[in-house]
Design a protein that fits this description.
The protein is α/β, with parallel strands linked by helices and 180 residues long. It contains 5 helices and 8 strands, in the order ααβαβαβββαβββ. The strands form 2 sheets. It has a 4-stranded mixed sheet, sandwiched between helices. A 4-stranded mixed sheet has the order 5-8-7-6, covered by helices on one side.
Length: 180
């Protein structure tokens, strides 16, 4: 697992350097507590433009699209060397997501994001109004599992949440203050 994280960090650095960034723009970062900070989360997508538009509807700003040479993608991500790889970083409030599109696209569905199995369960977004953002997700090609809508706690500390999916079925959790 650690090797994959380091490779992903290397791929991140390559993309920034290709875009004209300097090493000092990335590392070392004196604001990192204990020398470690989350660089980004990577999501494999079936259609880069569709996913970009989806996340832009949620307020993310999109960076430039970059192609990664097949040999580098094969070395860092384990894809066949003849596959093409395109990457775009999107950001909001300091959160960086790397959208990765491999051509030809995978025919495998997104991970179900089940907490009962190992691996990533979901991405959670803190929102001001859970149902408003769920409607926004549905209006932009995603899904909302209305039956997962629930509230935990009571009074001013009560938290509301619902699980949704992006256009490829990546599981997203919306968490916000419970509405009265």
């Amino acid at each position: 697992m650690a090797g994959k994280f380091l490779i992903s960090g290397s791929a991140l650095a390559l993309m920034f350097f290709a875009g004209g960034a300097r090493a000092t723009d990335l590392l070392p970062n004196p604001t990192l507590d204990g020398g470690i900070g989350l660089a980004n989360v990577t999501i494999s997508v079936s259609d880069l433009e569709r996913s970009t538009k989806f996340y832009q509807a949620l307020g993310f700003a999109a960076g430039d699209r970059h192609e990664v040479p097949g040999a580098l993608a094969a070395k860092t991500l384990g894809t066949p060397p003849d596959d093409k790889l395109e990457v775009r970083f999107i950001s909001r409030n300091g959160m960086l997501i790397e959208l990765v599109h491999i051509i030809p696209s995978s025919t495998k569905p997104a991970s179900p994001g089940a907490a009962g199995q190992l691996g990533l369960s979901n991405f959670a977004f803190r929102v001001d109004d859970v149902m408003r953002v769920a409607a926004l997700i549905k209006a932009n090609g995603g899904t909302a599992n209305d039956s997962s809508h629930a509230t935990m706690g009571e009074g001013p500390q009560a938290t509301e949440f619902v699980f949704c999916g992006d256009p490829d079925g990546v599981r997203l959790e919306l968490v916000g203050p419970a509405k009265k």
